[in-house]
Design brief:
By secondary structure, the chain is α/β, with parallel strands linked by helices. It has 2 domains: 289 residues, 4-Layer Sandwich (Metallo-beta-lactamase, Chain A), CATH 3.60.15; 180 residues, Rossmann fold (3-Layer(aba) Sandwich). It contains 16 helices and 23 strands. It has an 8-stranded mixed sheet with strand order 6-5-4-3-2-1-22-23. A 7-stranded mixed sheet has the order 7-8-9-10-11-20-21, covered by helices on one side. Helix 3 packs antiparallel against helix 4. The longest helix has 31 residues.
Length: 528
Amino acid sequence: MKMMFIGANHEVTGSCTYIEACGKRFLVDFGMEQGFDEFENVQIPCNPSQIDFVLLTHAHIDHSGLLPLLYAGGFRGEIHSTRATAHLCDIMLRDSAHIQEFEAEWKNRRGRRENKEEYIALYTMDDAMGAIFLFVEHDYGSYKEISDGIMIRFTDAGHLLGSASIEIKLYENGVKRKLVFSGDIGNNDQPLIKDPTYIDNADFVVMESTYGDRLHRRPTDYVAALAQVLRETFDKGGNVVIPSFAVGRTQELLYFIKQIKDRGLLPEYKDFPVFVDSPLAIEATGIFMKNYAECFDDEALDYIENGVNPIKFDGLNIAVSAEESRAINFDKRPKVIISSSGMCEAGRIKHHLKHNLWRPECTVMFVGYQAVNTLGRKLADGAKTAKLFGEEISVNARVLTLPGISGHADKNGLDAWISAIDGVKRVFVNHGEDKVSMGYAEHLSNDLGIDAVAPYSGAVFDLVTEVYENGSPVRNERRYKAEPNTVYGRLVAAVDSLEALVKESKGRTNKDLAKLTDSINNLIAKFR
């Protein structure tokens, strides 16, 4: 039994951990890196086709976004998740594939004019659909044996619809071990979804530390604070532009705005329009409503039981087509525009920033984490200009962050979560910026008396002998993340898959072996 740390080590995005146990190889999460890639990640130590299954904590792209790439490399095992996570990944992975293909097309149009080598999309829509068909849905709260000696249970993490901490029980050669992967631990008293559920016991825990160095400064009345931002902006005749994650954060904002309208907090602007400009957010909102029974908290369920949709109200406008999206910026009324992506790296939000950033009467309001080196982070940190579609835009609008709506637990919330788990021998701290993950591990050791480390990518822990070998921090010297060149990578993966197929072919009929041999030889002859 061993565990290798692959991604989100001393960084916030790109979550991935590799485990070998009970004769199986499997991953917990396989997420995409977003923003600045500070440390190089080691590769998964086997071919994708040799991964037996994946356990997925939740649907956010930094946890699920490379599953189609795994499929493209030959993976055909099951992907285990909660029901709501599977439903969200159905739309999110397709959306991600669309972005990959669109960016490849755009770069190649430009590249052909400059005689550049063809850029290949990280993965395709076919890859995304292939991964989506591998999902196996689970309920919260019940253990299930998914392989000999391996049992898993999903526990509500309170971070996103369907998000989970995953408990893994392993039994091999008389040795028993229980692992817990926190996933992203939710903030208490979030709108719509339930608070995190605590876990009773574990031998070893892998936990996130996104906000392990701070406490959330939540306003006494978040709805009133949001209403005040709207009033101040509308009084000047401006728009409130909210870059928002399409899944989770957008639905929470709609819930808060409904309360502003229901409580009559803006009587002078009671009919103010709200535009949701994100096809992904619109689909996700439908999934929220389908999964309310298992995932909504008591307050949201009260709306449902009274026949009221908690995230729908008068003045809500949905923009699906590109024409509807463009029309928003020709509407002269003061309004709220909610659009993705939440870190301003892609999607329709960039068009709305182009139309509103230069206007001093407008407000750009951030309501979620902004990764290092993203456009959202630069704006939140006070950038004076922003480059959008090749044009340098002056930042004259008010830019602010409304605290308190974070989907991640703060330091106190993390402490409460880990302190509830009995019998922990060691905690591995991940999913936090370099100083934050190091500092939180030291806090656990020094202040809470819990043995804790913050592993680097490549670190290996033997679950039987409990010997730990930390990885080496390999810093990425490139300022920006390299564009993935997957052509050669896919070729290598295909060769590895072929090698595995040959090894597995012993015992087949001579006719099948001869056919396979002829196919390989013909392929070699064709490309030599």
